[in-house]
């Protein structure tokens, strides 16, 4: 499931600030999917045909994961009766059990127990998972975190140790993106790639605060923000994970990858009437306004579909889910 990212300032500002509308920007045709306000944990189905969210409508015995067609062609219905941490392709479910995580393969109900101690699972290729076991108390910036990987059914193996951080995402079957400090006493964090077979690290960037780290769908690029550092170092960046200089971007706001070559974002701009989705192109290193939503997104709750063709968002004002096709 695609991760959505709001920078610390953007989190505070989106519903009250937006990019000024431009006459040349296409206006979105919105499809409303829910009524009465709803939902948390919204994400796209793997085939981009439906939105999934957690809900407990009036009269329901318990909360469940509901599905509603992105075309708005049917009412919401229960898709998964159990609340769990599902893999993006909905092939596995992670169910917390005390200090462990019970992982179940949905096709045959086969189960494995991992000693995650509260660590979040990162679903990787080929039935692999990664997680970080961190100390549960003390200054977060100085807490030790050990990163583990395993193929389900094998014994988890520690592959890295950092302080105040942990594994961020899989880049491919043999590489993780990890963020954290090299020791408890150093000032800056590192963002580095880690070969899970050899333990070899490649440091991409070192900074006081790294925020919104988000690899591209093919793992070849990463987007991130540096904040609360020196003025000349702060900002938005994209950088190749295989080596190469970072590009500093000329905007600031909420962003998500559309595909391996395009980053969508909603700039943080004060006092505009609507939110406009922009697209940054890696090849041309240029941005252009893509779609005027004609309204505002509530609290950073927007998601690009896995096929990159649509955007869903929770609308500020009525708290319902809407979908718009992207040009």
Automatic annotation (TrEMBL):
<feature type="signal peptide">
    <location>
        <begin position="1"/>
        <end position="20"/>
    </location>
</feature>
<dbReference type="InterPro" id="IPR011042">
    <property type="entry name" value="6-blade_b-propeller_TolB-like"/>
</dbReference>
<keyword id="KW-0732">Signal</keyword>
<protein>
    <submittedName>
        <fullName>Uncharacterized protein</fullName>
    </submittedName>
</protein>
